[in-house]
Amino acid sequence: MSDSRQLPTARIVAVQDDLVTIESIELAAGEYRPLSKNEVVFILPGRTASDGRQEYLKAEILRIHGRRADAQVYESTRGVGVGDSVLQTGELLSAELGPGLLGMVYDGLQNPLEQLAASYGTFLPRGVDVRGLDQQRRWSFKPAIKEGQKLRAGDVTGAVAEGRFEHKIMVPFDWPGEWQLDWILEGSFTVADPVARLTPLSDSGVADVHRSRHLTLSQRWPIRMPISRRLMALGEAERVYPSQPLSTTIRLVDTFFPLAKGGTGCIPGPFGAGKTVLQGLISRYSDVDIVIVVACGERAGEVVETIQEFPGMTDPKTGGSLMDRTIILCNTSSMPVAAREASIYMGITLAEYYQSMGYDVLLIADSTSRWAQAMRETSGRLEEIPGEEAFPAYLDSSIRNVYERAGVIRRSNGVEGTFTMVGTVSPAGGNFEEPVTQSTLGTVKTFLGLSADRAYRRFYPAVDPLISWSRYLKQLQPWFDRHLSPGWTHRVESLLQLLVRGDEVSRMMQVTGEEGITLDDFIIQQKALLLDMVYLQQDAFDEVDVSVPMDRQQRLFELMEMVVRHKPVFVADSDSHRKAAVRTFYTRLTGLFKNLNYAVDGSGEYNRLLEAIGVMLSPP
User: Per its UniProt record, what Gene3D superfamilies does this chain match (predicted)?
Assistant: First the structure.
């Protein structure tokens, strides 16, 4: 936080858009305060704002050379000039962690947009710094430990109720060594009130009372440093292999291209292919506790739509508002690129915080292409050696570092939390060969490639099954064999092969026409088309079909296998008439299946359609 009483320790020597060069100024006795990489500094423009307010422009140091450093400014640098004062905070860019995060809408620096709008209106002024957590709201804290107990970083001291969740209050992750609890209080407190006092213990177990610290309900953590890495270094947690799928209730995803709890995935596709709708349904119906949506650079209209729709969406888990378990961070394409680049790290840190409590967290990043473009702009201004398409040479490692923060963490007390990350990619012109998409594909384990052609034909989801893949289908085979049926993975792969074969026949038909292929090939093409129309497509606006539980997916999958095994017999006097009969048969069967998808489980309509399908698939 800025402090107007602090004396400047540096000054501006150059300005280039949102990049400034600062230089340490001489203090007493010829000393200079050292500059640190990723340190947060505040720039004080020489000219005050129109309302007479001194502006504090937040910036982060990117590169240091001697007494000078390059820093990216998170707001407009209009009016900033050479010689303007700079305040050093000595802190890294951090997230404020504590109760009150759920249901909030932040910008990329965790400024609460609703509070800013209430105080300053629709157009937010520059240089305003607001705390991420409400400092006035009181929370009922219930201790879980007793005086004299020994604690380490990350240990749970108690909890407060945050909606329907138990928000665990932990010893700050950056407190080193072992600590002894001197006292702890129960009652109603703000996030800044002391609720306990801890004293550090030496290696020999002696308490150092002169270094005692007060514990509050909140703590701060640098967003570019993984919380899980710190806990593992302390021996308080371990990373474990994802072992169960993330249920999204979307048939195409759960069956053919599954995600794992604690896994990673990406949804690349051109404009208008349905990324926003797909990610909205995944965030709404996935089997997770907490949802974090990071709009890192999308168009303002799309972000506004997300903010307006989520509070009105019903949470299928509770019947309440979906926002009760959601956090939204938004930096639209019209906001400074520096804040856009930071927003994804802010969202990841919030996800890791709830993961450390033992919750299942899903983070949707929309879109990582805009985030990478922000890095490209900053890299260009720093005059770094460019890589492919002018992206920084470290693009690949940056993308890997982001996705690798997802995973499954098991705490020393046995509590397990998962953090699943799904990023959408917006390649220009739908070109999947561009650097951001390729780097992402080399990192994630589920690839849901959206097709402009399928979207144009009104297929939803417009995921192309011929280019999409999931490494979790093999990795989670033990879970599928145990909870669905033995050989589930092989059965899924068999139907995927049907889609491939059907596509090959369709391409042949485009060249030779129906008369150029055999009747058997035509039947394969019709079966693949039925599978595509009935199982891979899902009606996002139908109350029943919008969300399909795994047991219903399994029943429909078994019906699809019956279709594949079925060998229709048609008596006709010519090949063209037999093919026409085949087309009529599968068109009628497709209609029955479509209506079955819309029918409520166990209803009379559902049973009637099931019986009609059984009759059509019965042996001749």
Answer: 2.30.30.650, 2.40.50.100, Bovine Mitochondrial F1-atpase, Atp Synthase Beta Chain, Chain D, domain 3, P-loop containing nucleotide triphosphate hydrolases
